[in-house]
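EI: anyone free to look at a 142-residue chain?
SC: sure, send it
EI:
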Amino acid sequence: MPVSAASAEKLRAAMARLLAGEPLHTDGALTKENLAREAQVSHATVHRAEEILAEWDAQVARPVLRTPGEVRRDETIAELRKQMREARTHAAELQGKLDALATVTANLYAENLVLKKRLGRTRLAVLPAEEGTTADSRSPHR
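SC: here you go
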């Protein structure tokens, strides 16, 4: 049973909008289901409209395989995304180590201040930077 003239007109208008990339009622994907939704007719109506379906099939290309260049591009993008994830993970690990070192340094500084107060000193001793000296020869408390 063929479709009514009104349904055929809706289907042709919907097909024109979809092919032009200007859908009103769908996401714009070139599918027969979207053709029905865009025309606001039932899926069964679309399948009864054999002439319009033939036009649709002639206009809508079958899924195109990706070209070798597109495949390489997609592989490169995937590899770069993987590298970025790894770099972010590494950066997070390094930041954790840096935070731990900052905490240890702050604790050592606080402990050093407490020890200096116990010894009654307020200044730090400056060690000479001479080559060939040992830690014992530089110590102010021999």
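EI: The first helix runs from residue 5 to 20.
SC: 👍
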